[in-house]
Structure formats: structure tokens, C-alpha cells
Amino acid sequence: MKVLIVGSGGREHAIAWKVAQSPKVDKIYCAPGNAGIEEYAECVNIGAMEFDKLVAFAKEKAIDLTVIGMDDPLVGGVVDAFEAEGLRVFGPRKNAAILEGSKAFSKDLMKKYNIPTAAYENFTDPQEALAYLETAKFPIVLKADGLALGKGVLICNTLEEAQDGVKEIMEDKKFGNAGNTMVIEEFMTGREVSVLTYVDGKTIKPMTSAQDHKRAKDGDQGLNTGGMGTFSPSPFYTEEVDAFCKAHIYQATVDAMAAEGREFKGIIFFGLMLTADGPKVLEYNARFGDPEAQVVLPRMKTDIIDVFEACIDGTLDQIDLEFEDNAAVCVVLASDGYPVSYQKGFPIKGLDTFKEKEGYYVFHAGTAKKDGQIVTNGGRVLGVVAKGDDLKQARANAYKAIDLVEFDNKYYRHDIGKAIDEA
């Protein structure tokens, strides 16, 4: 098979690495890719939002399967563009990707179908939002409705903070048109857990659980980021929690989308909060998480091509989805100053050492090739991943592995997976 992967981050590197393990695959392309993905794929200079060029390339190269990694093209309708030309593509159509593309839509869906989530209201008028806040309990959560690179959520502890947040999202348009509509919802307390699932329109199969660390600094301080590290599995995601989610959240979401005439095929990422009243949905995503994919895919035993094809063909019920009985931790190496401003172009040393180490991986997020050298080219530069028999061992291994890589302005959190110690 010939496979095309669309995207350029650490998630797409992890997908390319996993796809390369399938005996069914002879050739991988990635558009636009990055310096790390080049090890497994031929990178093509086509942007993820250039649908016509992507479709033309897939036809020209007789691509057997295209895998969409990123949220923007999915929400924009890239799958519809491929299907219109009779091409096989993994990911939800535009009318299903709205599950991630509009937080207002997803909240209304959960309310209609009794899927547990936080109480909320949607607003299109900033004055109405401000009036609502006068009567609200704090802390409270403000969410830009559309895509905002994982950064469009503000947790406000006071009325003043919330008023500033409304101005930032709806009036100053910090997140562009994503802030035309805003969701205000109750602040939930508990443990956060991420569960990625494969979906074929009717059947849903959960992958192993994970937990992300969104804030830039140790102790969950600083600004929201795309993710500073992950661990898998979550010790807080018990068999009881799993049973509840399967009964009341996972299948219910797939059935709700089908009932709305929005058949979902691809990946539903459930961001969950384990509250005192049971698990509730924080948010949905319509693709692999980043950096969740970097800890989940290395633990997956099943051939990923078989799973992708079963999701497209509606035969997921015939797949035995298996994961290793171990653990993995990913620590993101970022450029100092991320997520605000940072310098690029610093040479990265030590990447080759990972090739000799079993159970250690480095996934490129923001890298490029310059004068034959791999250099930093983004805020999140690399995801250093290590496996272990359990979470504590995986965490120790990941932090040991960080020292193998060097670049100027290297920055990372020192407490990824620290919650493990409390489990």
C-alpha cells in the first residue's frame, strides 16, 4: 500500500512511525511533514489546508489510504474533498468533525442526548455574556467556540478575570473567528483523563487511557499550551470508570451523532473529568491528541492499517484492539518562551542515540533541516518518550532520556506524570 499522512507535528510523526510498522505498507508520503517524519516518509511540500493539491497528489501517486492528523483540515472538509474523488481517507467528514469544530454544537448535543457534562450557556453577544457572569459562581470556564490550537479555554477565578476573558475572546478576537460564539460553563473539579477511541460510524473501540499536561510551567502554572507532556495509562481510569463511560458516554456519543445524520468515522478523543458525581465530558476532539498519540501508539499492538481500514469500511467490530501491559511517558522539549515568543533555528544534537535504545522514542514536533542539520523550528520541538513496566519506571526513563538531546533554549516541565505518585 501507499499511504499519505497529512500534518506536520509530533502526532503525525507518531502516526508515520506506527504506519511504517505495518507489513502492508510499502511507501509513505507526508504533507507537509517535518525533519523527523523524513525517516519514514517522503515529505511533500503541500500544506494541510491545500485540499485541491492534496487530492491531486493522492490521485497522481495512486495513494491507497490518506490519514488526516490535524483538526483544521478535518473541520474544513478535507475528507469530503477526498471522498468526492473516490479516494480512501481516514477521518470524519465535515458534518461530523463539527464535534470538535464547535464547542457550542457539542455541548448542545450532550444536553439533548443526556451525555454527562458541565452545566453551560452559549453566547453570541458579549453584553449578554457579561450580564450572565454577574450572576455566576466562580471559578468559571470560558471557551471560544471554534478551533484555537488547544488554547481557547480560560479558567477565571473572579468576575474581573471573566470580564477580561469575554473582552479577549469576543471583542478583541484573540482567537479570531473561533470567538464569535463563546461557551460559559461551570468549573468542574477532579482528575482529567484523555481516552482516544476508534469509531466506524456505529462501533466504538477505546484505546488505552492517557493524561495530558496543558500548562507551560511546573505545578500546572503558566499559560495554556498545546500540551507539555503525557502519560499512559492513567491510574485514575479504573475499571468502574471505564464501564460507566462505555455505557453512558462513548457509545451514546456515536449513537447521538448517527441520530443527527452526522455519521462519525475516525477518532473521537474524549477529554474527561472524573468528578465526585462521576465522569463527565470536558471536550471532544475529532482526531488523535498531541501529545497523547505519542504515548498511546507505542503501546498499541494491533496493526494500525487494519484499524484505519475497518473504521472506513464499518467493520471495526471484527478488530481485536490490543495494547501492551506497560506504561509510557512523553516529556515535550520546547523552546524557552513558548507559547508566547521564542527563537528558532538552533541545531539539535543527540537524536541518533534514540535509534539504539529499545523502548525510547523521540517524535519531532517543530523541527526543520538546515544545511544538512536538524534545527528547532517551533514552540514544541520534540516529544521524548520512554516505556517502562509501570508508570514510575516509564517516568524515570523519560527524564533520563531528556539528557540525550541538546539544543539552545531547551525548556521542559519537570513534573510530567507527578500525579502518578498520588495514585
UniProtKB/TrEMBL annotation:
Q: Name one GO biological process term.
A: purine nucleobase biosynthetic process
Instruction: List, separated by semicolons, the cofactors it needs.
Output: Mg(2+); Mn(2+)
According to the UniProt record, what class of enzyme is this?
ligase
The catalysed reaction is: 5-phospho-beta-D-ribosylamine + glycine + ATP = N(1)-(5-phospho-beta-D-ribosyl)glycinamide + ADP + phosphate + H(+)
Q: What pathway does the UniProt record associate with this protein?
A: Purine metabolism; IMP biosynthesis via de novo pathway; N(1)-(5-phospho-D-ribosyl)glycinamide from 5-phospho-alpha-D-ribose 1-diphosphate: step 2/2
Which keywords does the record carry?
A: ATP-binding, Ligase, Manganese, Metal-binding, Nucleotide-binding, Purine biosynthesis
Gene Ontology molecular function: ATP binding; metal ion binding; phosphoribosylamine-glycine ligase activity
Question: What is the E.C. number?
Answer: 6.3.4.13
* Segments forming domain ATP-grasp: 107-313
- InterPro entries the record matches: ATP-grasp, ATP_grasp_subdomain_1, PreATP-grasp_dom_sf, PRibGlycinamid_synth_ATP-grasp, PRibGlycinamide_synth, PRibGlycinamide_synth_C-dom, PRibGlycinamide_synth_C_sf, PRibGlycinamide_synth_CS
Q: Which Gene3D superfamilies match?
A: 3.40.50.20, ATP-grasp fold, A domain, ATP-grasp fold, B domain, Phosphoribosylglycinamide synthetase, C-terminal domain
Keyword Manganese present in the record's keywords: the answer is: yes
Family per similarity comment: Belongs to the GARS family.
Q: Which NCBIfam families match?
A: purD
Q: Which PANTHER family match?
A: PHOSPHORIBOSYLAMINE--GLYCINE LIGASE, PHOSPHORIBOSYLAMINE--GLYCINE LIGASE, CHLOROPLASTIC
Name under which the protein is recorded: Phosphoribosylamine--glycine ligase
Annotated organism of origin? Blautia faecicola
Q: Gene that codes for this?
A: purD
